[in-house]
Amino acid sequence: MTPKDMIASPRYMTTAEVAEYLRLKERKIYDLVRQGVLPSIKVTGKLLFPRQAIDMWLMNHLEGDQQTHQPVPQVLAGSHDPLLEWSVREAEAELALLCHGSGDGAKRLLEGTAMVAGLHLVDPATGAYNRPEQLGLGGLRDLVILHWARRRQGLLLRPDCDLELKSLRDLVTSRAVVVRRQPAAGASALFHWLLEREQISQEQLRWSENLALSEDDLAMAVREGEADTGLAVEAAAGRHGLRFIPLHEEEFDLAMRRRSYFEPPVQRLMAFVRTERFRERAAALGGYDVSAIGEVRYNA
Length: 300
Hints:
By secondary structure, the protein is of the alpha+beta class. The chain is built from 14 helices and 13 strands. It is elongated, with a radius of gyration of 21 Å.
């Protein structure tokens, strides 16, 4: 989206429009922006206000959300994503990464030991992604889920591997050694779901002895010959010089409590993803569609 498109988009409001929307004077809007209270972005010198972010800001200030809360550790838990890892670092978001899988991230978010959870958990019954009730987060009355990216998942192979793998069925006939992810990982749930769709049982595959705890761990296991292949995102293949066989496109989202959205670490991250530098990196890594990044997919 170009700056001109953003200014014209109904997803964004001008200063005058947000003042009318909030029933405040424009001078008060500028004061709130200067204080870092009201979410906004600057495009070609003009202030714009994402409508969804303004709605969340309003809900966060409703009576009942104003109670005193314990500070939440500045931790990004859940599933690993190469683009997200890079963005947190480049945005200087000051979020510590603790990527042990979607299930672990949801658990830490519920316990209050993580500020953000990266999720890509598929519902086997419907094929839908990151449903709060499936994650055990349905009871959080201030849960917010923001879209991060649509990612390509597939099989990774060394360039010199002579196995002919074009589909999941080939994993059975070739007797390839497959890297296994930890049970709480979204990639593990996705792989098992894809196998079930092809009517392939886990017992028909040859699994590696060790678990891979992240996309990079899996890619390194393949690159170093500990296994022949495994399921991971295209970006991991590119980062480690591996071949990639696409199988599926999935949704990766960020879950958090509503109040956390307005904390400096998340605001710095979300400001960074609107930059051209971010979009260039997403394109260079490959396998990402970030056209809907930041969209609110769930707001309790």
